[in-house]
Amino acid sequence: MEFVMLRPLCLEYPITHFLFAVSPSNLQGHSTSQSDSPPLFVQSLLRDQGKLQGGGKKVAGLGMLHHQQSAKQQKRKLRDEVEKAVNTVQRCRHPPRKTAREKIHYARQEKSQRAQILLLTRAQMELWRQCASWLIHCRVLPENHRVTWEGAQVCDLAQALRDGVLLCQLLNNLLPHAVNLREINLRPQMSQFLCLKNIRTFLGACQEKFRLKKSELFEAFDLFDVRDFAKVLSTLSLLSQSPVALQSGAQPFPLGSYSADDDIYNGLSDQIDDTVEEDDDLYDCVEDEEAEGDEIYEDLMRTEEPPETRTGVDKRECCLKEIQQTEEKYSETLQSILQHFMKPLVRFLQPQDMENVFINIKDLADIHRNLLEQIQTSIIQFGAKTLHQVFLNNKERLLLYGRYCSQVEAATKLIDLLSCTREDIRMKLEECSKRANSGRFSLRDLLMVPLQRVLKYPLLLQELMKHTTDPTDKENLHTALDAMRDLAQCVNEVKRDNEIIRQITSFQLSIENMSESLALYGRPKIDGELKICSSEKKSKHDRYAFLFDKAMFVCKKKSGELFELKETVDLQYYQIRDESLGERDKKWSHLFILLDCYGRGGYDLFFKTRELKKKWLEQFEMAISNMCPENATANNHDFQMHCFEEASSCKACSMLLRGIFFQGYQCTRCKMAAHKECLGRVPACGRSSDHSGTMRKPKPRASAAPSTGFPKMEAFQDYLGLPPPPVGFGLALPLSRGDVVELTKAEANMQWWEGRNLTSGQIGWFPNSKVQPYRSSPTPDLSAFNWFAGNMDRGEAKSLLTSRSDGTFLVRQKDGGEFAISIMFNMDTRHIKITSSDGLFRINDKKAFKGLTELIEYFQHNSLKECFKDMDTTLRWGYKQAEQIAPYSPANNAPGGNSRNMGAARARYDYSARDRTELNLREGDTIKILSKKGHSGWWKGEVYGRIGLFPSNYVDEDYSDYS
């Protein structure tokens, strides 16, 4: 038997160490390949040996080969080494018939050769690629992240690290609990403040836990603004070589030689897109307390499964058994908390601490004891025919979970604090845990279980409904399922709002002279640097702004994370006007204006890039829409954003108002509650008033096209200019059959008339025998067209088109029945009014069309520049139509070109987005589901080309339009 071994290279770390750095999936993937050709990464290595930087370029770490050899000889030698290893791999892949022991030898040899191939490949990587490889090995980046794709660039790695989340998780992977993930924001949504806070937390832990010197660390802005990414890589390289990191078994970098070309790290700040949202898969590696709580729940609720050998098992009976058994076990868990923890700790904790730790768990235990009795009665006595009514009757009682879920995080923090500061409490908690469950679960663990239980009811009922055949029972269960989904969504929003409250608290503590609570101003929309000048002070000032639903807080930056409040801009007194300067691509030249509604002045806001300006403009419009919604005064109401102290339901749809602050809208007169999307459907207000409480902006009246007083004529025969008009009349007006002519000079006894061809815009003379009176035809049903959006205002149109490619358009109908075109152009939404008179449709005075569809068809093939000099574009894609060139997103650029598709859903209710990350939904919309990760109860999807989040309980899944 012949074994060909590749000579080990003179490396600082032996090859055996590197075996642990090789991705198992890579080894398995290549070893199972049936092809005799070398793996793709080896082919690439053999093809691209120029990357070894021979010739005049410096090669770092040439000591790994022979110093006395020329660069050309080194490259040839490395190529020979790789080819030799590849040949060995091919022989090992298809060995002759051997014994089992010999097969094991072949497998080990192949694995060793593959490891050395990967080592050689990694050794000649650019430094940023070595860093990405290290991060993947440290379980921080997923193995299929786009930094591994063909054509990946260094800015892809920078974008993944900019928010600081993965860097903090990296430290925890190298050293458990190096960073308290509760102290960072896991979904900063590229908020500059939160991202910098995360990055500074990482840098602080590098000094404190990994003993890196301050001089070895990058600055926070070096990463966030990507102004010195080479320094970021240097810090991560030193971190990989720290004793703590080496103890974790991760192979450090750089390994051997690497390209020392620093030019690729220059100018990265101009390549970073501040509007890109990272893919949800990127955060899969981040620790999640919810997942930990789910594991504890599953362990506690584990039930006996029917033996696989049993045949004819009634799946519906199994579902009912699971509902009953898990309810029994959950009720026992609550009683155990009361008996083994709450009762013994009375003598150790102050009354206030007892309430803060156990919240309302006693009330929950009482509710579930009664709920269990009702479930058992329904199943045993009524064959589960009344089970749906059990859940409907208990929905209001289960709203107690809102309070519990909003306070349980503070409860677990208090337990941690008391355990650290008081030895007697720590020992008592351990004793209680041993008595309750032999020490398997602590009180902190058990307090997370109720969060999971209330979220399981929809899953249990959905499974039961799937195996129910009786139509009446199925419909009843669907009603109960809706109720439990609504409850679960409410609980999820409580948890989501708790994250927002933490963000607001961070903002509050950073603004030194902020006397009011920021939570009074709604949810945060966006924050970051801008330049501002007021009508009084014309000079620009560098400022840092925090935008909320109701106000913008303009601050001056101080040291670190501290700010000084300079002024508060109350948004209800301002309107937005978009402005574009000539120097479009110059930094800080992109602005829009806040105009005072009462003419007292305003502010000019300048942004670094056009993308940032667009992002801020969208959030301003969303904030103003939240504060002054379109239907705020519908049916004589006066709706305003409101914080409801108790759990409340919408008067229009009867679903719960979600969250713990500013959950919806309340009429200032009759106190009726409603969702934003339901404001136009609530019953009439019982108390009349003068609508003085809500600001309303007057809508300008649309002006009709000018009329000459002559009737319109339609050509029923072609006229190409022959015979010509009489001498002295003027030019002939060519006509094609169907053209509409607007007469300018005409007498009944004359054979020649003058007019304007509304199709071509030309003016001239034509024989009256070629035309007849024009009769307008009724507008056809437009719903079948992929560009018609129905009744819609500007704000909704902008929301639908944002993130779409230039040329994407829709036609909407305004309240007065008139039409308008909304189109994306130069990364902005433009609105074009369509006027109609005498059955003709126009977007300017030059051309008119017999129908709306004719107008749209014309400009689908002809540029709008004919009417608007600065709009050189056609109407390219209807907003319901798939674009031929989709905007960049990780999903669209995955290897193979296939975007992820998890099926589709149909919207059951309207939903109004609260910020730019969410989708607007209309009842009946079909949504392509892209991801179910992220915040619980929220899915990511695509509708009409826009990608965003939507509440999962607002849709029915498995709709087949996208199958």
UniProtKB/TrEMBL annotation:
<dbReference type="InterPro" id="IPR001849">
    <property type="entry name" value="PH_domain"/>
</dbReference>
<keyword id="KW-0597">Phosphoprotein</keyword>
<dbReference type="Pfam" id="PF00621">
    <property type="entry name" value="RhoGEF"/>
</dbReference>
<dbReference type="Pfam" id="PF00017">
    <property type="entry name" value="SH2"/>
</dbReference>
<keyword id="KW-0863">Zinc-finger</keyword>
<dbReference type="InterPro" id="IPR011993">
    <property type="entry name" value="PH-like_dom_sf"/>
</dbReference>
<feature type="domain" description="PH">
    <location>
        <begin position="523"/>
        <end position="625"/>
    </location>
</feature>
<dbReference type="GO" id="GO:0005737">
    <property type="term" value="C:cytoplasm"/>
</dbReference>
<feature type="domain" description="DH">
    <location>
        <begin position="315"/>
        <end position="494"/>
    </location>
</feature>
<dbReference type="InterPro" id="IPR000219">
    <property type="entry name" value="DH_dom"/>
</dbReference>
<dbReference type="InterPro" id="IPR036028">
    <property type="entry name" value="SH3-like_dom_sf"/>
</dbReference>
<feature type="domain" description="SH2">
    <location>
        <begin position="787"/>
        <end position="879"/>
    </location>
</feature>
<dbReference type="InterPro" id="IPR036860">
    <property type="entry name" value="SH2_dom_sf"/>
</dbReference>
<dbReference type="Pfam" id="PF00130">
    <property type="entry name" value="C1_1"/>
</dbReference>
<dbReference type="Pfam" id="PF07653">
    <property type="entry name" value="SH3_2"/>
</dbReference>
<keyword id="KW-0449">Lipoprotein</keyword>
<dbReference type="InterPro" id="IPR035899">
    <property type="entry name" value="DBL_dom_sf"/>
</dbReference>
<keyword id="KW-0040">ANK repeat</keyword>
<dbReference type="GO" id="GO:0035556">
    <property type="term" value="P:intracellular signal transduction"/>
</dbReference>
<dbReference type="InterPro" id="IPR001331">
    <property type="entry name" value="GDS_CDC24_CS"/>
</dbReference>
<dbReference type="InterPro" id="IPR001715">
    <property type="entry name" value="CH_dom"/>
</dbReference>
<dbReference type="GO" id="GO:0008270">
    <property type="term" value="F:zinc ion binding"/>
</dbReference>
<keyword id="KW-0344">Guanine-nucleotide releasing factor</keyword>
<feature type="domain" description="SH3">
    <location>
        <begin position="708"/>
        <end position="776"/>
    </location>
</feature>
<keyword id="KW-0677">Repeat</keyword>
<dbReference type="InterPro" id="IPR001452">
    <property type="entry name" value="SH3_domain"/>
</dbReference>
<dbReference type="GO" id="GO:0016477">
    <property type="term" value="P:cell migration"/>
</dbReference>
<feature type="region of interest" description="Disordered">
    <location>
        <begin position="689"/>
        <end position="708"/>
    </location>
</feature>
<protein>
    <recommendedName>
        <fullName>Osteoclast-stimulating factor 1</fullName>
    </recommendedName>
</protein>
<dbReference type="Pfam" id="PF11971">
    <property type="entry name" value="CAMSAP_CH"/>
</dbReference>
<dbReference type="InterPro" id="IPR000980">
    <property type="entry name" value="SH2"/>
</dbReference>
<keyword id="KW-0727">SH2 domain</keyword>
<feature type="domain" description="Calponin-homology (CH)">
    <location>
        <begin position="125"/>
        <end position="243"/>
    </location>
</feature>
<dbReference type="Pfam" id="PF00018">
    <property type="entry name" value="SH3_1"/>
</dbReference>
<feature type="domain" description="Phorbol-ester/DAG-type">
    <location>
        <begin position="636"/>
        <end position="685"/>
    </location>
</feature>
<keyword id="KW-0728">SH3 domain</keyword>
<dbReference type="GO" id="GO:0005085">
    <property type="term" value="F:guanyl-nucleotide exchange factor activity"/>
</dbReference>
<dbReference type="Pfam" id="PF22697">
    <property type="entry name" value="SOS1_NGEF_PH"/>
</dbReference>
<feature type="domain" description="SH3">
    <location>
        <begin position="900"/>
        <end position="960"/>
    </location>
</feature>
<dbReference type="InterPro" id="IPR002219">
    <property type="entry name" value="PKC_DAG/PE"/>
</dbReference>
<dbReference type="InterPro" id="IPR037832">
    <property type="entry name" value="PH_Vav"/>
</dbReference>
<dbReference type="InterPro" id="IPR036872">
    <property type="entry name" value="CH_dom_sf"/>
</dbReference>
